[in-house]
Amino acid sequence: PRSADVQCTCNVTIEYLNQAGQATKRKVIRNATLLLGRNELRDILLRVDDGKLFQNFVLREIQLFTRFIRDGKSCIKIVPDNVQILISNCPPDKLQVLVKTLAIKYGADKKSSKQASDRTRLLSVLPKTFDNISPVQLHDVKRANELRMLQNVHTPVSTKAPKNRMGNACPGRQVKRPRTTSSENCPVHNLPPKAILSMPVQRKLSKEQSHVLRTVLCGKNVFFTGSAGTGKSFLLKRIVGALPPKSTYTTASTGVAACHIGGTTLHSFAGIGSGKAPMQQCVELAQRPGVLQHWQNCKHLIIDEISMVNGEFFDKLEAVARIVRKSIEPFGGIQLIVCGDFLQLPPVIRTNEKKTFCFQAKSWRKCIHLNIELTEVRRQTDKAFIAILQAIRIGRCTEEVAAQLIKTASHKIDQDGILATRLCTHKDDVELTNERRLQHLPGKVHTFNASDSDPMLVQTLNAQCPAGQTLELKKGAQVMLTKNLDVQRGMVNGARGVVLGFESENKALPQVRFLCGVTETIKPERWTIKASSGIYLTRQQLPLRLAWAISIHKSQGMSLDCVEISLARVFESGQAYVALSRARSLEGLRVMDFDPKVVRANPDVLQFYSRMKRERLFMQSSLDDYIEI
Ligand SMILES: Nc1ncnc2c1ncn2[C@@H]1O[C@H](COP(=O)(O)OP(=O)(O)OP(=O)(O)O)[C@@H](O)[C@H]1O
Ligand SMILES: [Mg+2]
User: What is the protein's known function (predicted)?
Assistant: First the structure.
């Protein structure tokens, strides 16, 4: 990161503690700026600036609490001064850079010859200075990790969290440097190994993605759209990381889509059920304790997969927002950041219900300031395949396109015992296929039960977590990863593999060979989801699911390595496009029974998109005229 990045704006509470660890004095600063620097003796400094005055803290011996960085919270305890600095409501990506920089620089400084001795400090007559800390270099990371390894052998890890003024443990776990103690007191085999330190690697946003991020950070209400795989959800995650967490609510139309971006469903945020009740009743529902808080705290509402949100529901939300927030502004003044592709799946409705898209909602135009289209497809790289998908998206299936897709029926995409995943139009087909295929495999069933933080809320977890409560596997089972484990090595959400066997130790974890060539023992992972009441639920389970088949509706938003599609029972416009666009390449795709008739784009949506394009061109040309004048 550039040094400008090692700073963030957040709420800060400075607590001065007594010997018993209780706060005797507290100072709360809202919208403080935190900045890392170095003084004239090369000590690391943390500057807390409230806009008028600043205070520098020397970080010579600290404990760092990092568990809730994704929630924008952290805590730095300055041991010799008995002071702790509690950070909250910080944009998570910024906080991560600040905390990691601090952890690495601090780790690398330890016992460094460059560190001033106590004598030098006492005798120093140098004027006091503050220089912004320099970006983390590879050698800092290396040195910090070498010292960490040494400590792994010599020191225990304290798991005690610091106490705040209420005597409650701070929201964090100590993960960084404990003070040195005698190795006799701490048998090496009891020590949890310390994680290797590294700087977060963020993949670069494209020019058009950066433009959207900037527009969002300017406070505009934005709808951004684009074909499947243009990185809409990827960008949404970055937007979430750049906004203050206390007032940002991340949602999506379906549980699966919500999980991709680490949020909840729009319905559970809103708390008005299906929204079909009369207005007064919806308002009462939204004013229930727990729900009202969301509506009042929310300043930025993020919605992914907007194509599946019903327009009438959107209008209801808009009206409820105004009433509950006592505001006459559209959506009660909440900034909307909405994305999706209306040419993918439409809202799921009951029979007799009217289907309306969100862009047909009465309040859509006054709520959305800007429509932006992402045009660069990132999921696929093959230009010919991208062109086929673009044609399918708008319902144009020429003979040539049809011929190309029919040809895929003979594709041999099964490799190394990894079979293609079948995308099904109907849910019952999926369950039946997976159950039957597993049953037919010889060998012992290995059952893995999830460990949930609240077993009473299993249904919520099942609905929002990509990992099921029980997972049954056998040797030879076709599986798919449900979490990004290592993006660099191709171990990403949707990566396909086959179970080679099980470890012989007591947990008998599965060994999986993936299409990307990696073979790995898969260990349980943890998912944290926010329930509608605002509490956090966690599930620990293997990040795997059976992958002989999945439904097209559940596949929306995913990227898949090898897919087989049967489109005979397609029942929605956009459904064939969603299925086909999951594949990363034409070689990884097999369409069993392609019939151009199943390719349908909704005419209203097509009209909406062409109007959007016209308006953009009009705006562009008037801008060009203006520049010429
Ligand atoms: N700037 C980027 N750098 C690297 N990879 C990217 C970038 N943007 C997107 N990707 C990758 O492209 C793929 C598709 O992205 P993503 O799933 O966000 O697309 P999407 O527009 O949400 O698609 P869908 O409409 O199907 O939900 C993902 O594997 C994602 O990691
Ligand atoms: Mg997406």
Answer: DNA-dependent ATPase and 5'-3' DNA helicase required for the maintenance of both mitochondrial and nuclear genome stability.
CB 520 within 8 A of CB 502: no
With a CB cutoff of 8 Å and minimum separation 6, the contacts of 537 are 452, 453, 454, 457, 460, 461, 528, 529, 530, 531
Give the pLDDT band of residue 229 (cuts 50, 70, 90).
very high
End-to-end CA distance of the chain: 41
How confident is the prediction for the chain on average, in pLDDT? 85
Q: Report the candidate in 381, 397, 385, 342 with the shortest Cα–Cα distance to residue 364.
A: 342
Domain ranges of the chain: 7-110+128-132, 207-374, 389-598
pLDDT band at 166 (very low <50, low <70, confident <90, very high): very low
Give 237 Cα–ligand 2 centroid separation in angstroms: 10
Locate all alpha helices (DSSP H) within 166-221, ordered by sequence. Answer: 207-217
Pocket test for ligand 1, best of 379, 393, 605 (most atoms within 8 A of CB): 379
What spacing in Å lies between the alpha carbon of 562 and ligand 2's midpoint?
Answer: 18
CATH topology of domain 207-374: Rossmann fold (3.40.50)
Task: Report residues whose beta carbon is within 6 angstroms of any ligand 1 atom.
Answer: 203-206, 209, 226, 228-234, 341, 378-379, 557, 559
ipTM of this complex:
0.99
pTM for this predicted structure: 0.82
**197 alpha carbon, distance to own chain's centre:** 21
For residues 47 and 68, the answer to whether their CB atoms sit within 8 Å is: no
| Class of the domain covering 7-110+128-132 | mainly beta
> What is the position in ligand 1's atom list of the atom closest to the CA of 374?
21
CA 94 to chain centre: 15
The three-state secondary structure class of 228 is coil
